[in-house]
Write a structure and sequence with these properties.
Elements (H helix, E strand, L loop, with lengths): L1 H25 L7 H6 L36 E3 L7 E3 L12
Antiparallel strand pairs: 1-2
């Protein structure tokens, strides 16, 4: 009986962890998302409207922003401005702050 209980507990924990990791990996910020639009976020930072966002400069992207939570070389990572979603490393928004 103990083995059955252990199996059920382990299976439940494993399933929950797998679902959480899949949901996290799939959640990407869309350019049309209201928060993203308000910040001028573009998944491809080179497509930023430079007239509307004159702060943008070539070479700025999420990967070299202080807010980017991904590791060096990651194609996407978390950003505290878009809780529960990921931004592309090549993206850009008006909250860009160069990493120290």
């Amino acid at each position: 009986m103990t083995n059955r209980r252990e199996f059920i507990v382990q299976f439940s924990l494993g399933s929950a962890a797998l679902m959480a990791s899949q949901a996290h990996a799939q959640a990407m910020v869309a350019d049309a998302d209201p928060q993203a639009a308000a910040l001028g976020y573009k998944a491809d930072g080179t497509k930023t409207d430079k007239a509307k966002f004159p702060k943008y400069a070539a070479g700025q992207n999420c990967a070299n922003c202080a807010l980017f939570q991904g590791k060096a070389g990651d194609k996407a990572g978390g950003c505290p401005l878009f809780a529960g979603k990921q931004v592309t490393a090549a993206g850009w928004c008006s909250a860009y702050a160069k990493k120290a």
